[in-house]
Design a protein that fits this description.
Length: 380
């Protein structure tokens, strides 16, 4: 609160172009610097005050200071993130640095650039999905201790820091794609239900059965299986993004039951709530990366696994224009090759890539890297 009060005061008084506060008023916590309104809490050229630029490589403006994005309190991978109605980003479950499923949940506040522990889940879960629905965050499916997917769904309420148990999924699934549409309906698509050990040196094992079903949940309702006529084939490890047009984009993933070399896909499947269509293929086949809709109307796919079993993972950033139905590679790749992470776009217009498995030197990381689409820059 102290920092926000300070920034609000700066917004009223800071006028680098010599104008008076009354004549040069800018909305919210912004200030007029050099004739333009800027957000002193996030602007790299005017961080904390007009003219104070962040010049150190990899450092951005966070909460009005030239610094790095704060790391999580604990390393995690194969987790999920969701941005709640309170503006905070929640990192839920996953594997910790002992490669065991965890119950831990942390919340990131972009106003302070700090993570805090919140009430944990009642049971550990990994390879789960998470979405915001109304004022709550849903933690969906995943696995607990073994190789069986679960139908469990838990709902976190930021207002009382408590968990409740909404209806269970119709089909147990892990590594599924989950997204809430513009009408507030949550959809869970595809995934796997049973993982079996590898049967040769050429694969890592995989699902005994990949799923080709989807189900939806309205607030206050039960999960309902949806028809999948003309939908994509069985797939898991795909990443869902709700595009600016309100359509669900299902990107990449594995399309086989096992994980032999070359089983990743470049497929883009688009669902409008009634029918499926195909979008332009991704430039690079990928699974187990992270994907989000950016503030610029574009869709971003970060890192992931390619056609070589995920060693090393990718640092590429693939960018999709849903209006023109075309892809491009971003000129600024991830700072390090990365997989099994999660990502979200926050209210400051930047994309936060959280945790995951970094090839070298960290393994499972607590790190957060942030991409600014306006500047085409990474902060770490």
């Amino acid at each position: 609160m102290v920092r926000w009060a300070m920034l609000a005061a700066l917004a009223v008084s800071a006028c680098a172009d010599g104008g008076s506060p009354a004549s040069a008023a800018c909305p919210g916590i912004t200030a007029r610097c050099g004739g333009i309104c800027v957000d002193l809490s996030t602007d790299r050229d005017h961080c904390g005050e007009c003219g104070h630029a962040c010049t150190e490589l990899g450092k951005g403006c966070f909460a009005g200071q030239c610094t790095s994005p704060a790391p999580m309190g604990r390393p995690r991978a194969l987790h999920a993130v969701a941005v709640a109605s309170d503006g905070r980003m929640y990192a839920i479950g996953g594997h910790d640095d002992t490669f065991a499923p965890t119950t831990r949940v942390e919340a990131y506040d972009p106003a302070t650039n700090r993570w805090s522990e919140v009430k944990p889940m009642t049971v550990p879960r990994t390879v789960l999905s998470a979405v915001a629905q109304g004022d709550r965050v849903l933690a969906i499916g995943g696995t607990q201790f073994g190789d069986l997917a679960v139908d469990r769904v838990d709902a976190y309420d930021p207002n009382d820091n408590g968990w409740s148990s909404p209806p269970k999924l119709q089909v147990a699934r892990a590594d599924a794609a989950a997204v809430t549409d513009l009408a507030g309906v949550t959809h869970v698509l595809w995934g796997w239900n049973v993982w079996v050990a590898k049967n040769s040196d050429e694969d890592d094992g995989g699902p005994a059965w990949s799923l080709a079903s989807m189900e939806s949940l309205e607030q206050g309702g039960d999960w309902m299986l949806e028809g999948t006529v003309d939908g994509p084939p069985p797939r898991w490890g795909a990443r869902p993004v709700l595009g600016p047009n309100g359509k669900i984009h299902l990107l990449g993933g594995y399309r086989s039951h096992w994980v032999p070399l070359g089983s990743t896909t470049d497929d883009v499947s688009i669902y409008d709530g009634a029918t499926w269509t195909h979008g332009a293929s991704m430039p690079l086949r990928r699974a187990l990366g992270a994907a989000v809709a950016g503030p610029d109307g574009l869709i971003y796919y970060f890192g992931g696994i390619g056609d070589r079993g995920g060693i090393p993972p990718s640092s590429d950033v693939q960018v999709y224009d849903p209006v023109g139905d075309r892809w491009a590679l971003a000129p600024a790749p991830l700072p390090l090759p990365q997989r099994d992470m999660a990502a979200a776009t926050l209210s400051d217009g930047r994309i936060y890539v959280v945790g995951g498995l970094v090839y070298l030197p960290d393994g499972i990381t607590s790190g957060v890297v942030v991409y600014d689409p306006k500047r085409g820059e990474w902060y770490w």
